[in-house]
Amino acid sequence: MTINPALLTAAERLQYEGYLHREDTNTAILALSKGGIAIKEIVRRTGHSRGLVRRVLRGERNDVFRTRETSLEPYLPWLDQQWAAGHHNSAKLWRSMQSQGFRGSLRVVTEWAPRRRRAEKIDAETLHRVPSARTIARLMTMARNDLSKAETVTVAAVETGVPLLVEAYVDGLLPARRSQ
Known about the structure:
Layout: H1 10-34, H2 39-46, H3 50-58, H4 76-84, H5 90-99, H6 106-128, H7 133-141, H8 149-161, H9 163-170
Helix pairs in contact: 5-6, 8-9
């Protein structure tokens, strides 16, 4: 996978730099292991924990953008099904989830519901209008951190659909984004 750091947001850039650091660590550990050095000696030489060294040797540390699993993750299919059936009351959904063994708080579900509503609204709005050329130019030249979620989705769609536009931006044919 090729990642262009110029197209990343500030948060994504931090994650990418962390990934590069993890890759350097992984490479060092794997090189020592290929040299026939025992895990205990690798731990002593690198200063990393035994668990970390084992995870690297098992190949469990190679993700670029790590995501954390929320307590809702196992219940999302059920929540989606309930939402589609018209059950939008967060407290009722939470009580039903508790009977299924959910140990998260009411707040987790009450924060999920508005995000779901906004996502539906954004999807409905996005399907009905195509942005003007002026709007696309403005979005492509703005700092990614200044874009709303809907604008970020639009930029991603444009970048996916019109790769020549991204190439022109990267090659300097378009004005640079302001204050990344």
